[in-house]
Amino acid sequence: MAKHNNHAPLRPPSEQSKDRAAKRLSADSNGLSEGGAGARTPVEVTALEEAFRRFAIHGDTRATGKDMHGKNWSKLCKDCNVIDGKNITLTDVDIVFSKVKKKSSRTITFNEFKEALTELSRKRFKDKTSEEAAEEVFKLIEGKSPIIAGVTRAVASPTVSRLTDTTKFTGSHKERFDETGRGKGKAGRVDVLDTSGYVSGYKHAGSYEKKVGPRGKPE
């Protein structure tokens, strides 16, 4: 009886090489590498995605940067000049936000964010095609960060004001400042020898010289 051969016929080496190459390409496309199973190639973050993340986490320490709420969406449109006050207003921005977000959600994802910008770009750049308008709006945002408005001012404390009011100083502390409240420097801290011949504190010091002149003769 003839024996059945269960082994598949050998294939030419050239076809075997092609099969190995095809499998390796398929593994690479799925994020696998020969260095380790399951390893994924890093995804490059675009300038638009980075701007989205910066605005998404602005003012919220619990934000992950993966989605953005309406307040920060409006701020992004203001800070990046998407709102021009003519073609695009704050009302337009709010309407588009409500349009692209899911009904049950209060935030938008990055893909919904791009959809909203594309929607606004048609009104912002009416003289351009849809693709060109979207690119122009993206350029306004790419690489940008939230603008921090205002500077924190120190609140004047009544206690501090009282302690720094030179008009209420007495004794030796008062002598360290002139009538305008400006410090006298060393003269206010160290006793300076007075050789004028007048008693210390005499208000009319120097008046005699003005009357009789420097040589003792009346002027």
Distance between the termini: 155 Å
By DSSP, the count of extended strands is: 2
In the predicted model, the low-confidence regions spanning at least 5 consecutive residues are 24-42
State the strand order across the main sheet.
1-2
* Secondary-structure element pattern, one letter each: HHEHHEHHHHH
Q: Bin the strand percentage.
A: under 5%
Mean pLDDT, to the nearest integer, reads: 75
Number of helices: 9
Largest sheet, in brief, is:
2 strands, antiparallel
Helical residues, percent: 40-55%
Classify the secondary structure makeup into a structural class: mainly alpha
Rg on CA atoms, Å: 40 Å
Broad shape: rod-shaped
Main location: cytoplasm
Family: Belongs to the TPPP family.
Keywords: Cytoplasm
Biased composition (Basic and acidic residues): 16-26
SSE layout and pairing:
Elements (H helix, E strand, L loop, with lengths): L12 H17 L17 H10 L10 E3 H10 L10 H11 L6 E3 H15 L5 H12 L16 H7 L6 H4 L32 H6 L7
Antiparallel strand pairs: 1-2
Helix pairs in contact: 3-4, 4-5, 5-6
